Amino acid sequence: MAAAGVSLAFRAVRGLPASAVGQRGARLSTGSARGFRHAASFRREHDAAADEKSTHFGFQTVPEGQKAERVYKVFESVAQKYDIMNDAMSLGIHRLWKDTLLRTMNPLPGTRLLDVAGGTGDISFRFLEYVRSQEARRRRREAQALQTPSWQEIANSYGPGAPGSKECRAVVCDINKDMLKVGQQRAKDLYYTTGLSWVVGDAEELPFDDDQFDVYTIAFGIRNLTHIDKALEEAYRVLKPGGRFLCLEFSHVSNPLLSRIYDAYSFQLIPVLGEVIAGDWKSYQYLVESIRRFPDQVSALLGQGFPIGGAEKEMKTVTMCKVPVRSKYTVQLETDLFSSHIRAQNETPCLPSSSAANSRDVGHTCFTSFHFVPYGYCIAQVCSQL
Amino acid sequence: MSVVFLPRVLRISARALGTAGWAGHRGCSGWTSDGGPGHLYGGHIPTNPVQKALLAVGSGMAALQNPYRHDMVAVLGETTGHLALLRLRDRMKSSPEGHSILKERPRIRLSTLDLTEMSSLPDGSLGREYLRFLKENRVTPDSRADVKFVDDEELAYVMQRYREVHDLLHTLLGMPTNMLGEVAVKWFEAAQTGLPMCILGAAFGPLRLSARRLQLLTASLGPWALRNGRRSNCVLSIYYEHRWGQSLTSLREELCIEPPPLSLSTLRKTT
């Protein structure tokens, strides 16, 4: 799956025609400021009736057709101050969560990452940093091991290595161009010049070919989608067999005292911060409301796992449990079905285990690991096994 | 590998249309009330006292740090101005013209002004001088932020009217929109309306003035502004939309405002 084989429908939004598109590649048309509208026109037929169905937009109920547009407007208006607001709202702790996600991911050199709803690029930057520092450490160790390196070895240590060597690559995909623009500017400021691609795309209809990526992440983005099941199908499609799906999202806080403090903080303080720092109360009101809505929407879907494919593809199931956080420093895991089972697997992330199963899954392997960080954030990691 | 930059036109017009806000379009009659739960008017965001206090402190600090953040000045005014708005509203009600303004709720925007007619008025008339002021200072009445945090519909209108009359006040007082002119108008407004935001602006505004302008302010402009603010009639009680043809001098006499002691030419908007 080297670079030559990649047929990403990588489309620069400046209006160049989509190049080297696979069969399921995007046909996002050129010159439109609202790419998602064109993506919507290629959705499946039942979407015509979808406008009559309604979905949640924060605490409001809106027709499904409207949600994407409203979310787009929210992020368009917050894009410039997005990172500052993240720091202000979480007191900088969001950096720890994202670092934890990377540690969970533990990418090896040569991993290809798709960062959906990646926006300003936090996860991708960390990914590149992680892999490159691993690589640098490995090379240092190698160099130290060599007593008298030959000229060839010295020359190799300067360059990127032989062509076709494992170079890690991250693709940041987001539906919102303003967020990507901010991300590109940050990449320039932080000197991430290679290994990054920026693609405008809809998570429910990704502009990539099948079986492209090793890791798919969606950090704090899945709750903004209208059809999470479609996004999961797409994730399953673009992931290679054995690829991983990681989702970083807010979860509920079950401790009643903490939960009251958390609610007060969310609803009283965050919109005020949004108004003062970004001049936008309503967008941050939407954000805190969508956090409250999220677990209801998604836990059922993730509990069903990746959808059943055709006859050749076997069912990949996932177990997902709600993970309440008990207190600041200790974490207690409560599951409804497989308590001992899941606890045992927690220490060995992402190794296939034949004993991993849920009651519906007969004879297929699946594995899920959960990593928990304080203050009510959970990371669900799913391996797809073929 | 580049993301297109949104055309500047779209972005500027989006900001200008920002007055429509999330609540959507206002009715042509001006002030419509939104049907949302707890929302008393279009653009209203209900807040509790804790949030108002936080907003007041936050917006005050943001406005001090960057005085060009007009939205922060606006939020500061809304969250701190309840008592002053009550007083203003009562003052408006006590005059027949003010009473009719409160009833009819007119809005001053480019779409409601008849620009061709106003530009054909004679020099020295209110309409002509107002248009000249808008053109010379490159401002528009549509750039005023909407009221969001006032929890009474009538008071919210009074606040909105105050914002829209601000430019007319510049015209009446003959002050340009540079820092010195703005501070002079703020002193007038502080004396007349008693809004805490005006008082704070009047107190902190001079800190950003150069020494020469500070001297002008303290020597002649400031005392003039304060004196006139205190003794003039309520500027919000004038139905300006019906008086475009009236001459500035007669309007000043009616309001008991002395003409400015200095004629400040339109300088650039830096201190």
TrEMBL record, chain A:
One of its GO terms (cellular component) is extrinsic component of mitochondrial inner membrane. S-adenosyl-L-methionine binds at residues 120, 174, 202-203. Its main location: mitochondrion. It catalyses: a 2-methoxy-6-(all-trans-polyprenyl)benzene-1,4-diol + S-adenosyl-L-methionine = a 5-methoxy-2-methyl-3-(all-trans-polyprenyl)benzene-1,4-diol + S-adenosyl-L-homocysteine + H(+). Keywords: Membrane, Methyltransferase, Mitochondrion, Mitochondrion inner membrane, S-adenosyl-L-methionine, Transferase, Ubiquinone biosynthesis. InterPro entries: SAM-dependent_MTases_sf, UbiE/COQ5_MeTrFase, UbiE/COQ5_MeTrFase_CS. It is an enzyme of class 2 (transferase). One of its GO terms (biological process) is methylation. Pathway: Cofactor biosynthesis; ubiquinone biosynthesis. SUPFAM superfamilies: S-adenosyl-L-methionine-dependent methyltransferases (SSF53335). GO terms for molecular function: 2-methoxy-6-polyprenyl-1,4-benzoquinol methyltransferase activity. It is found in: Mitochondrion inner membrane. Its EC number is 2.1.1.201. It is a peripheral membrane protein. Component of a multi-subunit COQ enzyme complex, composed of at least COQ3, COQ4, COQ5, COQ6, COQ7 and COQ9. Interacts with PYURF; the interaction is direct, stabilizes COQ5 protein and associates PYURF with COQ enzyme complex. Methyltransferase required for the conversion of 2-decaprenyl-6-methoxy-1,4-benzoquinol (DDMQH2) to 2-decaprenyl-3-methyl-6-methoxy-1,4-benzoquinol (DMQH2). Methyltransferase required for the conversion of 2-polyprenyl-6-methoxy-1,4-benzoquinol (DDMQH2) to 2-polyprenyl-3-methyl-6-methoxy-1,4-benzoquinol (DMQH2). Belongs to the class I-like SAM-binding methyltransferase superfamily. MenG/UbiE family. PANTHER family: 2-METHOXY-6-POLYPRENYL-1,4-BENZOQUINOL METHYLASE, MITOCHONDRIAL, METHYLTRANSFERASE. This is 2-methoxy-6-polyprenyl-1,4-benzoquinol methylase, mitochondrial. It comes from Scleropages formosus (Asian bonytongue).
UniProtKB/TrEMBL annotation, chain B:
It comes from the Eukaryota. InterPro entries: Coq4, Coq4_euk. Its EC number is 4.1.1.130. Pathway: Cofactor biosynthesis; ubiquinone biosynthesis. Keywords: Lyase, Membrane, Metal-binding, Mitochondrion, Mitochondrion inner membrane, Ubiquinone biosynthesis, Zinc. It is an enzyme of class 4 (lyase). GO terms for cellular component: extrinsic component of mitochondrial inner membrane. Its cofactor is Zn(2+). Zn(2+) binds at residues 166-167, 170, 182. It catalyses: a 4-hydroxy-3-methoxy-5-(all-trans-polyprenyl)benzoate + H(+) = a 2-methoxy-6-(all-trans-polyprenyl)phenol + CO2. It is found in: Mitochondrion inner membrane. One of its GO terms (molecular function) is zinc ion binding. It is a peripheral membrane protein. It holds the Pfam family Coq4. Belongs to the COQ4 family. Lyase that catalyzes the C1-decarboxylation of 4-hydroxy-3-methoxy-5-(all-trans-polyprenyl)benzoic acid into 2-methoxy-6-(all-trans-polyprenyl)phenol during ubiquinone biosynthesis. Component of a multi-subunit COQ enzyme complex, composed of at least COQ3, COQ4, COQ5, COQ6, COQ7 and COQ9. HAMAP family: Coq4 (MF_03111). This is Ubiquinone biosynthesis protein COQ4 homolog, mitochondrial.
